[in-house]
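Hi F.,

I've been meaning to write this up properly since the lab meeting, where we talked about keeping a consistent format for the predictions we share between groups. The idea is simple: the sequence comes first, exactly as it goes in, then the structure tokens exactly as they come out, then a line or two of notes. No screenshots and no reformatting. I'm using this chain as the first example so we have something concrete to point to.
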Amino acid sequence: MPPATMPIAVSRTLRQLGEHVATWRKLQGLSTTILAERAGIARGTLRSIEQGAGTASTESLLRVLRVLGVMERVVEAADPYATDVGKLRADETLPNRVRR
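Output, unedited:
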């Protein structure tokens, strides 16, 4: 099976997120070497995150966001119960599994 092509919206978002990470790093006066070291990742991995390559693991991204002090904000942004739909359905019992 050939690898799936990355959707344009995902590619764009990876680039935007990478730009945000780079901006946060620069605002805090951190070099790529220092940020990568504090996050416990390779400098090349940080470069991939900042370039929006989409090859870094979720753990590596979260390590970087933690060092930058924004990890909790990113997690909160993904909270389904903070959305209108989530608030409307908050009282419903969610299934353990969703099957098709």
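Notes:
The domain at 8-88 is CATH 1.10.260.40 (434 Repressor (Amino-terminal Domain)).
The longest helix spans residues 8-27.

If this format works for you, I'll send the rest the same way.

G.
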